[in-house]
Structure formats: C-alpha cells, structure tokens
Amino acid sequence: MQNLSSFDLYQHILLTDFLRYFIAAGTAYLVFWVIFKKQWAHRIIQQKPLQAKRMWSEFGYSMSTVLIFTIIGFGLMSLKNAGHTLIYNDLAERGWAWPFISFGLMLLLHDAYFYWTHRLMHHPKIFRHVHLVHHRSTNPSPWAAYSFHPMEAVVEAGIFVFIVFTIPAHGLALLAFLFYMIARNVVGHLGIEFLPKRFIKSRWVNWHTTTTHHDLHHKHFNGNYGLYFTWWDSWCGTEQVGYQQAFEEVTSREKMGQAEESGVGKIGLRKAKAAAIALFLLMGSADAQTPVGNWKTIDDGDGKARSTVQIEAAGQGLSGKVASIFPRDCEPPDPVCEKCSGERHGKPIKGMNILWGFRKSGTEWVDGSILDPANGKTYRCKMWLEDDGNTLKVRGYWGIFWRTQTWKRVG
Ligand SMILES: [Zn+2]
Ligand SMILES: [Zn+2]
C-alpha cells in the first residue's frame, strides 16, 4: 500500500467501501426479496412490502456514509503508512493465533461501543438531530444497513479510530472485521427472519442478535439496542419483552402456497387453512379502509413510539383504548393517570379508554373525543386515514387551536 499515491489510496478505499456495502446489501436484497421472494414471503417479519421510495432514501444516505467512512479510512490509512497505528503487516510478528483473538476482541469492543453510543443517540435531546434518519425506516430493507445521518456516520466510524490505536491488528484480521460488520448490518436490516426456530432455544448460539431482534428496534424505536450480541441488552434490561415470542411467531409461520401445492383432491385441513388465510387477508384489506385496528402513537417531542392504541367499532361510532405503553427509561412500567379527574383518577393508563364518539362524515370520522392521559384533559377530535390506510391523522381541538398527531398502523 506504501507505493500508492494519496489519490490512488483514496480511490482504493472509496471503491472498497462502496463495494462492501453494495455487494452485501445488493446480494441480500436480490436473493431474499427478488429471486427467492416466494420461498421467504412467510418469513417477512412485518408482513409488509418494502417501499421503493424508502429504499432509495436508504441507499442515498448509505452513499453519504460510504463517503464519510472513506474520508476517515483514508486518514487512518495515511497514519498507518506513517507508522502511527498498531496495524502490523508481518503475520509472523505475533503468531498465528493472534489474528483470531484480535478479531474476537474487535467484535467485543465494537459491540460495547455500538450499544452505548446507540443508547446515547436515543437520548431525547440527541435523537432528532443524529439518529432519526436511521429510524425513518420503520420497516427496514437491506439497503438501510448504512442509512445514517452524516453525524451518526461519524459516530459509527469512531470504532475504527478506537481499534487501530488500541488493538494490534493484522490487516487481514481488520479486513475480516470489516466484512463481518457489513454482513451483520445487512442481516439486521434484512426484514426477513431466515434462522430456524430452534436458534433462540440453543444456548450455543442464542446470544447472537437476529434479524427479528433489530427489526423490532426499528418497529418500536426502543429496546434491543445491541449489534452482534444480546449481552448488553440483557445486562441492562433493555431487551424488548416480546422479543423471544416475536422470533418464535415468525419462525413458526407456515410457508405460503403449501395448501395449493398439496394437489387437487386432497381437500382438508390445508384447504380450509388457505381459505381462512384468504378470508383473513380480505378482512385485513377491508379493515385498512377504517381506523379499526392497532396504532402506534409517536411522541412529537423525540419521534419515539409512545404507545399502541386499539380502535374498535362501537355501535355507529368508534372507541379506542391504550393497548400498550413504551415507557422511557426513567418512567414507571405501568403508569397511572394522576391528572385525570373522576373515576379515571389514579387508574392505570394501559387499558384506559381514550377515544369515544365519532361518526363517519365523507372520508373523515368527526365529533369524537380524545383524552390525553398526560394532562387528564379531553379534547374534541376528528381523524382521517392517509397512506393507503396505514397512517391515521388524529386532530384534537382546544378552542380555536388544534394539534394533529400522526399514528402508524401496526402489523
Ligand atoms: Zn436506534
Ligand atoms: Zn438499524
């Protein structure tokens, strides 16, 4: 590498960084979402198609990350060539075992670095400016592997700086680390759980994170902060409560189309199942035209999911209750409504009825009421659907003022 000019070195790193991302994300996308899409359809974690617009955005931000990684990589390689880093060239220098040991050390160090910087980036004061770009992908695709705001890309690159000055690493061990890192990043954002059901039960492997693990982080905005291993999340109590069940649910799904493959004449359970699934899908698509269903509410302060609300048909109108709450680190797991008056005072917010009334008027539901458990006040409310029934706009009125919240359909 010493005989490369600075410009050649820069180009070399740029190409390597770009190809590393493009080949890893592209292969995963092509194999799972294009060529073998049918075979994997039943394992799509969120059971939703990927949006082209979102993937282009993920790709665009990943290109900006490649550029930032290249600039920092160039700086580090220049330092290495001047002899200022711990990177070494001669394998004999530290024996054959060291490249393997140092590789393991790099993973451990990176896992800790990632977990703690990731949690820091979820701090309400930092989240919006640094980490929100990555979380715009609530249903991530492999292209989201490097979809970071430039500031987050700098934070992510920090691990290389850390490593080259703390761990004496042979170039090959460093290269293996770089490839393992992109592979795990792509797998985390694959959107399809390809591991077998028994993975989570086996104590030999279940301390590795899975696609479902990180997918849930994107879906719910909190919990499951780890990168390679589940250790930090379990030590710090940040593993999502439903992770194991979610993994088991995805990996137990039956392959689609099996009923048809079983052949004409074998009428029975399988056909009944197929009919039930078709009916379920039909009901699902009909449901998409009304607010009936489960919704994730987002805090407009920090962009994080606050709770899920379950809306049901009630007579001619609608009613909605809080189905689950995602408390912040400092909040109690099962908060009560302290500011509510009357019979709601001091009652748990989970399970509380917060929406009632409403009548359909054209494409809107109007004349309803919404209770804000945070201040115990009730507001006049109307709502309407957007984005093919996947977004619910909820507008509360207070005198002549109003505020509109955006809720996202769950599942
Ligand atoms: Zn995050
Ligand atoms: Zn992610």
Question: What does this molecule look like?
Answer:
By secondary structure, the chain is of the alpha+beta class. It folds into three domains: 6-249, no CATH class; 258-287; 293-409, Lipocalin (Beta Barrel), CATH 2.40.128. 44% of the residues lie in helices and 17% in strands. It has helices at 6-35, 37-40, 52-81, 98-121, 124-130, 132-135, 150-166, 171-188, 211-220, 231-235, 243-252, 258-261, 269-287, and strands at residues 293-298, 305-314, 317-325, 353-361, 364-372, 377-386, 391-398, 401-409. The protein has an eight-stranded antiparallel β-barrel. α1 (6-35) runs antiparallel to α3 (52-81), α1 (6-35) runs parallel beside α8 and α3 (52-81) runs parallel beside α7 (150-166). The termini are far apart. The protein binds zinc ion (2 copies).
Features of the shown structure:
Lipocalin, 3 domains, 411 residues, binds zinc ion, 13 helices, alpha+beta
Summarize the structure.
This protein has helices spanning 6-35, 37-40, 52-81, 98-121, 124-130, 132-135, 150-166, 171-188, 211-220, 231-235, 243-252, 258-261, 269-287; strands at 293-298, 305-314, 317-325, 353-361, 364-372, 377-386, 391-398, 401-409. By secondary structure, it is an alpha+beta fold.
